[in-house]
Automatic annotation (TrEMBL):
The protein's annotated pathway: Carbohydrate biosynthesis; gluconeogenesis; Carbohydrate degradation; glycolysis; D-glyceraldehyde 3-phosphate from glycerone phosphate: step 1/1
GO cellular component, one term: cytosol
Protein name: Triosephosphate isomerase
Organism field: Pseudozyma antarctica
Superkingdom of the source species: Eukaryota
GO biological process: gluconeogenesis; glyceraldehyde-3-phosphate biosynthetic process; glycerol catabolic process; glycolytic process
Length: 274
């Protein structure tokens, strides 16, 4: 299966990174909850929607969501691989679970570049996340830029997928076979560049990743096609999802969606409207 199926729920979320302070976080979440409440009746498909604030505001955002009885789901930006211990400054996956976190982002290119996070680190964190009943959101992407972006050969696609698979396989192998996982794909070579990856490129790579996952894992154990969703984690704008929907199940947004209306508009694009 190489394109999204009706049984995989669309998924869209936004990370605040370290751009928001406490008042801005509260304002953003309140406005997003209000806008989403108004938009929900018009959405065509049931869609999972999440926000990822910083650690300090996780509990307060959880309270905002709960008080409003909003369908928004809560995410966290990182986690330690152990539930307890002498790890000063780290955050326990058990604590995140107790706060109400659903998705935990790991392996972001910034974490790898600035903090030396390795594929082994990501795998250990993914196992801890899954073992605490949450879903690892694993950021993946190739560092090397293919030479022929507009005319990718089968070998070119295979090389990109192989590079990404080295980031994915250790995590899958360390997780329970019935656990859900989300991959957020973005080519590292395209981050912050004037020439981003084209929609056609994204579709080719994400469809190939889906084929690789289904070939190696679906049917061999408890994993199913539905247990792995793929998001595009690059810069997004109006109309992007329609161009890449054959390869991905949704979008993982950054600064573009730091305005609540832009976030809600993207949700409408992904879920469709009646």
């Amino acid at each position: 299966m190489s394109s999204p199926s009706s049984s995989r729920r669309p998924l869209v979320g936004v990370s605040f990174k370290m751009y928001f302070d406490v008042p801005k976080t509260r304002e953003y979440v309140d406005e997003s909850i209000s806008l989403l409440s108004s938009a929900l009746p018009s959405l065509s498909k049931p869609t999972d929607i999440f926000v990822i604030p910083d650690f300090v505001t996780l509990s307060s955002v959880a309270s905002q969501i709960s008080s409003a009885q909003s369908p928004l789901l809560l995410g966290a930006q990182d986690v330690h691989s152990q539930d307890f211990g002498a790890f000063t400054g780290e955050v326990s996956p058990k604590v995140l679970s107790q706060v109400g976190v659903k998705f935990v982002e790991i392996g972001h290119a910034e974490r790898r570049r600035y903090f030396g996070e390795t594929d082994e680190d990501v795998a250990n964190k993914a196992a801890a996340i899954a073992n605490n009943g949450m879903v690892p959101l694993i950021c993946i992407g190739e560092v090397s830029r293919p030479r022929n972006l507009d005319e990718l050969s089968i070998d070119d696609v295979d090389a990109v997928v192989e590079e990404c698979w080295r980031q994915i396989r250790p995590a899958l192998e360390g997780m329970p076979s019935d656990a859900e996982v989300v991959l957020a794909y973005e080519p590292v070579w395209a981050i912050g560049k004037a020439e981003p990856a084209s929609p056609e490129y994204v579709v080719k790579i994400t469809k190939a990743l889906r084929r690789r996952y289904n070939k190696e894992y679906v049917g061999a154990d408890k994993r199913t096609d539905e247990s792995m969703r793929i998001l595009y984690g690059g810069s997004a704008g109006p109309g992007l999802f329609a161009k890449i929907s054959q390869g991905v199940d949704g979008l993982f947004l950054g600064r573009f969606a730091h305005k609540p209306q832009a976030f809600i508009d993207t949700i409408k694009e992904i879920a469709g409207t009646n």
